[in-house]
Structure formats: structure tokens, C-alpha cells
From TrEMBL:
Protein's name according to its UniProt entry: Deoxyuridine 5'-triphosphate nucleotidohydrolase
Classification via SUPFAM superfamilies: dUTPase-like (SSF51283)
Domain dUTPase-like: 18-149
Pathway listed: Pyrimidine metabolism; dUMP biosynthesis; dUMP from dCTP (dUTP route): step 2/2
InterPro entries in alphabetical order: dUTPase, dUTPase-like, dUTPase-like_sf, dUTPase_trimeric
Keyword entries, A-Z: Hydrolase, Magnesium, Metal-binding, Nucleotide metabolism
Length: 150
């Protein structure tokens, strides 16, 4: 283990039955997030929804959590996160929600306690910003967007 961090997770009222985010293997990067929808939610093709997870978290300053799609859902049903990766700020204490979109051809139904996305913790460096008049020169310069070829 290179880095060990303490994160608090809270089940919000009315969501005692919803699983806390959980790693599906010891060395998985992501904690799977469970849907806290009441009953079921069906996303028609092209439809998006902000799906509740029933949890809130607190993590140390200098961390963020990223909400990422699950590749299985994306492959099988075209279900992904519209704003991937979603950003959970260290000072956010509200309910974590997942902005899902159905990019598939068929309606997709999400049941309560179904795994809908995953949450990966990342470090965020402390950055000091300086406003300058010129930048140093590099070989790349302003080249980008495929300027090196296909
Ligand atoms: O997928 C997401 C993305 C964000 N959030 C929550 C946590 C995050 O800390 C907060 C704000 O997110 P973001 O900075 O992406 O949103 P914004 O559109 O810039 O809103 P704000 O003005 O509230 O910061 O919303 C989620 O629950 N899920």
C-alpha cells in the first residue's frame, strides 16, 4: 500500500438499506456506488437522470473523488456518466449523485441497490497560480489536437 487515507461515509436518512460504496476486490481502484432510487427508475434511450446514492462522505483536504462509469454497464447497455469523471470536492457534504445517461438503443431500468457507477479517490496537489506575461518555450509549443499525425 503506497498511500493510506481515512474517508468517512454516512448513510443519509431513509437509506439505511442502501449499501455503502464497496470495492469488489481488495485491489480494485473504485468503490462501486449503489442506486438509492425508490423502486425503479427507467432511462429511455437518450435520457439522462441524476441518480441518488443515499450517501455523503468526508475526506481529507487534498483529495477528490471521481465518479466514473462501470465498463460492464457501458458495454452491455450504453449506460455511462454524462459528466465523466464527476468531481466530488473534499468540502462537499451533500448526497453523492450520479449523472447517468442511456446511450444505448433500449430502455434501461435501474433498481434500488443496483451498482451504477464507481468512485475513485485521487490526490489533488496544492496549486499556487501566478499571472505572468510570457511562458517558457517548448518543442511542442502550441501544437496539439493531432498535429503529430493520425
Ligand atoms: O457527478 C457528480 C458531480 C458532482 N457532485 C457533487 C459533488 C461536488 O462537490 C458538487 C459540485 O460539483 P461540480 O463542481 O462538478 O459542479 P458545478 O456545476 O461546478 O456546481 P457548483 O457550482 O455547485 O460547484 O456536486 C456529485 O454528487 N456528482
Amino acid at each position: 500500500m503506497i498511500l493510506s487515507i481515512y474517508v468517512q461515509m454516512l448513510k443519509l436518512p431513509g437509506n439505511e438499506d442502501v449499501n455503502l460504496p464497496r470495492k469488489m476486490s481488495e485491489q480494485a481502484s473504485g468503490y462501486d456506488l449503489f442506486a438509492a432510487v425508490s423502486g425503479e427508475l427507467t432511462l429511455a434511450p437518450g435520457q439522462r437522470a441524476l441518480v441518488p446514492t443515499g450517501i455523503a462522505i468526508a475526506m481529507p483536504d487534498g483529495l477528490e473523488a471521481q465518479i466514473r462509469p462501470r465498463s460492464g454497464l457501458a458495454l452491455k447497455a450504453g449506460i455511462t456518466c454524462l459528466n465523466t469523471p464527476g468531481t466530488i470536492d473534499a468540502d462537499y457534504r451533500g448526497e453523492i449523485k450520479v449523472l447517468l445517461i442511456n446511450l444505448g438503443q433500449e430502455p434501461f431500468t435501474i433498481a434500488r441497490n443496483e451498482r451504477i457507477a464507481q468512485m475513485v479517490f485521487q490526490t489533488v496537489p496544492a496549486v499556487t497560480v501566478e499571472h505572468v506575461e510570457t511562458l517558457d518555450e517548448t518543442e511542442r509549443g502550441a501544437g496539439g489536437f493531432g498535429h503529430t499525425g493520425k
